[in-house]
């Protein structure tokens, strides 16, 4: 069965978002609950500027949304199914090979 180009683009976009550990941490944090950037930066131990860049990337990928809340902006996952997808993806990868890292895969030239 052939995959539509749009399916490939969607998966590649999700993959680009997950390719950075900080963006993964942001997505996992937002899976738990919506958050304001300042609080999220403090919780993740990163600068607000660095977090802002990653939130912009996640917004551009369509994975998070910024919602005005008075004078502040709250971020949350664009769709609750993304939280389930993150859980399912993590569980599947752990089930397949829990002890493997990208460093292991790099030796074979795939990462």
From TrEMBL:
SUPFAM superfamilies: Winged helix' DNA-binding domain. GO terms for molecular function: cadmium ion sensor activity; DNA binding; DNA-binding transcription factor activity; lead ion binding. SMART domains: HTH_ARSR. Keywords: Cadmium, DNA-binding, Metal-binding, Transcription, Transcription regulation. It holds the Pfam family HTH_5. One of its GO terms (biological process) is response to lead ion. Residues 4-100 form the HTH arsR-type domain. PROSITE patterns: HTH_ARSR_2. NCBIfam families: HTH_metalloreg. PANTHER family: HTH-TYPE TRANSCRIPTIONAL REGULATOR CMTR, TRANSCRIPTIONAL REGULATOR-RELATED. Metal-responsive transcriptional repressor for the cmt operon. Binding of cadmium or lead causes the repressor to dissociate from the DNA. Homodimer. This is HTH-type transcriptional regulator CmtR. It comes from Streptomyces kanasensis.
